[in-house]
Design brief:
CATH class: Mainly Alpha
Order of helices and strands: HHHHHHH
Oligomer: single chain
CATH architecture: Up-down Bundle
Distance between the termini: 26 Å
Number of domains: 1
Structural class: mainly alpha
Number of helices: 7
Amino acid sequence: MRNQVVRSSWKSVFTVDEKWRLKNVAEAYESLQFLENEIKEKKFFGGEKLGLVDISAVYVAYWIPLIQEIGGMELLTTQKFPNLYRWSQEFVNHPIVKECLPPRDPVIAIFKGRYGGRFVSK
């Protein structure tokens, strides 16, 4: 499932052809919906404590919001995936995780500088 989320969300940003872009967005939504159904009302995927599944889903919590911002699109929102969005905020703000993640601004600057015009905007 993780690979499908990564592949489809990444392609959603880089695909110029609108038909294929919408297909990739639909695939990303499907994968995110699976995770939404799994997290339900729990704080983390395993319950109250941060676990291996949460760590392996770092792409959803950290990278998807970055590519959304860079690509001018919406994949993971509180309206579409309220439980998963809530989890992503809990995850990236967990003291241990926060200490390990790279700072957002330099990462965004690197991506914009490297890929610039290749990102599709809304």
